[in-house]
């Protein structure tokens, strides 16, 4: 019973210093898409005042990034429990990756389809 509770506790804590990076590419040409907007919705167990509740998310961050001329983007998220990603670029169909539990390193290669 004690091991179960300990492993449950570890699975519901915020992961610290999550490195999130990747590339946004054209689905057909496989070429980089510069200036694609990446919106990260980050849910946390800890709120902005340091209060924690492991039964629900108290904190929420919205992080907005843009890919560079090679289609690359990266960021470090201080604390994360549940992450969703949205990829947008004018002329392309929006793509979303919803509901990812964070790892210390998260890498994505995303292909966007032209409208």
Average predicted confidence as pLDDT? 88
Contiguous uncertain segments of 5+ residues: 1-10
Strand arrangement, largest sheet? Answer: 3-2-5-6
Q: Fraction of residues in helices?
A: under 10%
Helix count equals 1
Shape: elongated
Measured by DSSP, the beta-strand proportion falls in over 45%
Description:
With 115 residues, this protein is mostly beta strands. It is 9% helix and 50% strand. The chain contains one helix and seven strands. Strands 3-2-5-6 form a four-stranded antiparallel sheet, with no helix packed on it. The chain has a three-stranded mixed sheet with strand order 4-1-7, with no helix packed on it. The radius of gyration is 16 Å and the shape is elongated. It starts with a helix and ends with a strand. The N terminus is likely disordered.
Summary tags:
mainly beta, 115 residues, four-stranded antiparallel beta sheet, 50% strand
């Amino acid at each position: 019973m004690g091991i179960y509770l300990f492993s449950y506790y570890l699975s519901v804590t915020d992961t610290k210093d999550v490195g999130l990076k990747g590339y946004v590419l054209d689905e057909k040409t496989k070429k980089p898409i510069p200036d694609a907007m990446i919106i990260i919705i980050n849910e946390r167990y800890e709120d902005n005042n340091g209060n924690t509740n492991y039964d629900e998310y108290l904190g929420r961050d919205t992080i907005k990034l843009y890919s560079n001329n090679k289609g690359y983007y990266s960021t470090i998220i201080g604390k994360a429990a549940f992450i969703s990603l949205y990829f947008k670029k004018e002329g392309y169909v929006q793509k979303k990756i919803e509901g990812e539990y964070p790892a210390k390193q998260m890498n994505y290669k995303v292909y966007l389809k032209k409208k």
